[in-house]
Amino acid sequence: MARWQPDARGRLEAAAFELFRERGFEQTTVADIAARASLDKRTFYRLFGDKREALFSGSGRVEEVLVRAVTETDAGPFEAVVAAFRRVAEELFADRLELVRARQAIIESSPELQERELRKSGSLAAAVTAALRARGLDETTATLATESGATVFRVAFARWIAPDSDAPLSDLIAEVAAELRAITSAPNALTSAGPDEPSRRW
Amino acid sequence: MARWQPDARGRLEAAAFELFRERGFEQTTVADIAARASLDKRTFYRLFGDKREALFSGSGRVEEVLVRAVTETDAGPFEAVVAAFRRVAEELFADRLELVRARQAIIESSPELQERELRKSGSLAAAVTAALRARGLDETTATLATESGATVFRVAFARWIAPDSDAPLSDLIAEVAAELRAITSAPNALTSAGPDEPSRRW
DNA sequence: ACGGTCATGTCGCAAAGTGACATCGGCACT
DNA sequence: AGTGCCGATGTCACTTTGCGACATGACCGT
């Protein structure tokens, strides 16, 4: 028997991605995934904690880039986090709009996957906060900077994958960061702040 | 047979809470919960979508208070959200520190429950954002205000349930909100800009 | 060739959910 | 009271998840 399959993990990820697109997440069985990759269900569970994990293998790389970027700068906490997310946008997301859209569509179709994504984001945030603390910041400051930066990223990301969007994610992040500043620093603005001038490289 | 149980839902919630505390979430079976409430497993699934939901029945009330508070004020978006969370703190959390601590301990013991809590928070946030939009704010402003306010709440909440804490949650929220302002309002220039080769496979 | 180790397959099982159907209790209406 | 309907609950059977235990085949160093 073909014991020793090259890149079993990668093949399972690919099979899962295809099947989730074809039939949807809930209509896809782990046995289906394994079958398409010519592997056994049990093998799947040895490589992935559960069915959802097959979609989230990339989060490790995101964490790497994020932590490295935050560690290697000496900008203010919030600025550092925003810059780190822009790094991620440039290194990991640019050029992959369609792939990211497809993946996001799958996630949004299933509550289970949404939950998992939230958890992944949470652990990413924890790692960034830890990196900030390693720079000497106190817990509260580090957490607030991380969460604010993550919020900026989420909003910018949503705009990026919107069907009519074409601006680079990195630019969108910079714009949204500026908007956040406007909101939190002016304790009386009753109405919204219009789309400000996109701050370039600052 | 005893068809017709008074307050089946409440009894199942109580039974679940007890069992989760006694044996932990994963070691508790839905059949166990139902048995303690003298009901059938199938009945549990008619009242709750899944095992986790038994712990999250309170989120409905939180949403009510939040949305009402945000709707009935004309303060700036961020201020309105912070004030709304303070309302929640006063009306729903004050006087229940020990209960909340126990509940939080259960949640933190199980990744599954953490995911569910994240999702609940997310749908709460969506409701608040919608309420802000109903006041005429644009999507981005509403989202940023909601998320920032939620972050403030999370940080304050963590302090509140910390073992050595004794300040009222509502006060902690006000303090943390001030700290967030301090962080985001001082734009401190400095980019990341590192020559790095892009990694593959997000 | 030998033994060890690692990746994979096979088998079986507890628990999560769910659909279909049965049953009981109260309720309205005669 | 009698009848009949409806909603809440129980029962059964089933699919899927996820995992433990064990078997087996492939590769590796000696």
UniProtKB/TrEMBL annotation, chains A, B:
Superkingdom per UniProt: Bacteria
Domain HTH tetR-type intervals: 6-66
SUPFAM superfamilies per record: Homeodomain-like
UniProt GO MF annotations: DNA-binding transcription factor activity; transcription cis-regulatory region binding
Signal sequence, renumbered to the chain: none
InterPro entries cross-referenced by the UniProt entry: Homeodomain-like_sf, HTH-type_TetR-like_transc_reg, HTH_TetR, MftR_C
Cross-referenced Pfam families: TetR_C_14, TetR_N
DNA-binding region: 29-48
Gene3D superfamilies attached to this UniProt entry: Tetracycline Repressor, domain 2 (1.10.357.10)
Keywords, in A-Z order: DNA-binding, Transcription, Transcription regulation
Protein's recorded name: TetR family transcriptional regulator
The organism's taxonomic lineage, starting at the top: Bacteria, Bacillati, Actinomycetota, Actinomycetes, Micromonosporales
